[in-house]
Amino acid sequence: MKRSRVTLADVAALARVDRAVVSRVVNKDATLNIRPETRERVLAAVEQLGYRPNVAARSLRTARAHMFGIFVPDFANPVYAEIIKGAEAEAAAQGYVLVTGSATGAGLGGYMDRLGQGRVDGLLLAGAGGESGLVEQLDRAGIPWIMLNHRSRSVRRSVVLDDERAAALAVEHLARLGHRRIGHLAGPAGADTATRRSAGYSAAMRDAGLPEGPIVAADYTPAGGAAAMATMLAAAEPPTAVFVANVASAIGAMEAVRKAGLEIPREISIVAVHDLDLASYLFPALTTVRMPLAELGRRGVTLLGRLQPDEAVAEVLDGPIDLIQRRSTAPPPTP
Amino acid sequence: MKRSRVTLADVAALARVDRAVVSRVVNKDATLNIRPETRERVLAAVEQLGYRPNVAARSLRTARAHMFGIFVPDFANPVYAEIIKGAEAEAAAQGYVLVTGSATGAGLGGYMDRLGQGRVDGLLLAGAGGESGLVEQLDRAGIPWIMLNHRSRSVRRSVVLDDERAAALAVEHLARLGHRRIGHLAGPAGADTATRRSAGYSAAMRDAGLPEGPIVAADYTPAGGAAAMATMLAAAEPPTAVFVANVASAIGAMEAVRKAGLEIPREISIVAVHDLDLASYLFPALTTVRMPLAELGRRGVTLLGRLQPDEAVAEVLDGPIDLIQRRSTAPPPTP
DNA sequence: TGTGCACGCTCAATCGTTTGATCACGCGAG
DNA sequence: CTCGCGTGATCAAACGATTGAGCGTGCACA
What we know:
The structure is a homodimer. Chain A is of the alpha/beta class.
C-alpha cells in the first residue's frame, strides 16, 4: 500500500551510507569492498522500506532496458503462442521481460513507434511475411532484431526450424505404411516455410524411390486447405495419402475429404506439420509432426542476448522433431 | 543503421532552438507559442536526424511508463489470446504498449519482480485463480491493477463478463428446441465464472419452468469434461441436452458421449460457453455462446487509464453475447 | 515617453541510478 | 617518524527528457 515511492536515497539515509553503496549492494557488485555489518544494514533498510529499483532511472543510466520485444501476426494462432511461451521462459531466466505486439493491434509500424527508443534491447519477429521496406525500417530504428522461421537475403539474422526434416519424417511415415502415391498440399508460394517443407517432401520422396505425387499450393488456412484438397481429389488418380504443410490447411483438407465422400484414414491418410492441442480434438484425430516451437522462441531470446552488434546469424534450430501418430494415417486401401 | 543515438540536444542544435522547444513540439504541447517556421525547422531536424524520444528518460521525468502489464495463465489458451488482442488494440490506441507475462514463464511473483518499479502504469490480471496472498502482493507493489473475469471481496477492481446472460442464452436455445431435461456441466467449485454460469443456468431453468436437470462439476479441461459427462450419462434418466460451462470441457464431454455410443445432436445436444475457432472444427461443429473476450481486454485497459488512484470498480461488461448455432444442438429425440 | 502585455523563446532544476574518481583512516614497513 | 597502501566507504557527474519560471523584444495604448 506504499504510495510514496522509495528511492535509493531513502534507503541510504536509513542505512546511514551513501547511495552508491546501496546501489552496489543491490546490484551485487563484486568489486565492492564492504563490511558485512554494513551490508546487513543496507539490506535491512531495503527490506524495511520495500525498496524496488526504478527501472526508468536504471535504463536511462545503463542504456539497457532489460526488455525484449516480440512481434507476431496473431496471438490467437497457437503456433505463435508456443513461440511466445518459449521466449518468455528464456527471457524470465535472464531477468528480462517481454513486450509483445501483434499485427492485429496496430501493425509492426505502430508497434515500433510506440516502442520509441531504448524501450527494448532487441526485437524478435515471428512469421513476418516479406513486407517490403520492413528490413530498412527495422534497421533504421537501431534495434537488434532476429527473424524467426523465415529467412531471405536481406535478413541478416534468423533462426528457422528444420522444416525439411519435418517433411521427411511425415513422408517416411506414410511410405512405411505402404503408401506409394503421396500428394503434397504445399504452403503459399511466398512463404519461406512452405518452400522448405516442399523441398523436404521432394527429397524424401526421392529417397523413398517414389514419384512425386500431385502437389497443390494452399494458404495456411482451413479455407485454403479445403480448396486445394478438392482440386487434388478431382485429379485422375488421386493420392492415397497427403502430406499437408500446415495444420490449419489440414483442417480444411479433412473437411474437403469428407465432402468428397471419402473416409479418413481408410481411403486416404493425412499428416500435417505442427502439433497443436486441437489436432487431437479433430475427427479423426490428426497425425502431425511436432516442431519445437517453444524452443524456437527460447533460442531467439538467447541469441538476442548474446550476439555482438554486427554479428550475423542464420541458424537451423537443432531441436527435437517428432511424428505424433493419431488416427488420420493408416495403410492404403487394398484395391 | 544509426548507431549513435540522437538526443533532444542534437535536434535542438540543428534547429538552433532550445531543447525545451523541441520537447514541446514533439509532444504537441498546446500551450506552446511558436512561429510556424520555427516549428518547421524543428520538425525537419527531427526528421533529418531520425530522432526518437528516449523512453527511459521520459519515464523517469514524467513517472509514467506508457506501458501496461497483462498477466495470463497461459498464452496458448485461445480465451486469453482473445483478451490480449483486445487489450493490445486499446493500448495501441492510447499509445501504450503491453508487457505480457504468463504463469508458464516464472509465475506472477517472478513477473512482478522483473517488472520492478515504474515499469508499467497498471496491471491486468486475467483468470488469476484465488492464490492466497496475491492481493496483498499486488497492493504492496503499488501498481494499479484490475482483475478480469474474476471477482471476490478482496478484489477492489474487476471487470467480468455477463456469464449469467450467456447461460440464459444457451438454456433458452435448448428449451426453444423442445428440450425439457437440460443438464449442466458446471465449472470447478472454486472458479468465479463457474458460479456465475451456474447461477445463470438455474435462473433460466426457473424462467423456462423446467426442473434443474443433473448438475455435475467439471474442470475446464477436456479430461475433466469427459469424466463429468460420463458420470452424467450413467444416471437413471440422462438429459437430452447439456449446457457446458466451458468449451474445453465440452471437447471432452463430446468424446464421452461418443464413447457412450450416443450421437450428437440426434440423441443429445451440447452447447458450451466461449466461441473459439476450434469449435467449428470439432465433429460435429459445436454450438457455442460467444462472449466479448476482446472487449473485456479492451475495457480493462480503458479503465486502467481512467481510474483515479483509489477508485474501486466492479463492472459487468455490457458487450454483445451471441449464440452461435452449429451442428451440436437439435430438437430432442422423439421417444 | 513610459507602461503593460503578448509573443516566442531560453534557463535550469529535476527525475533515480550508476560508476569512475577520490578520500579518510589505520597499519605495517622502512 | 613518515611513506605507502589496502580497506571501506563518499562524491559528483552523467544519462535524456520535461516543465515551471524567466527574459528580451516589439507593439499598443495612454
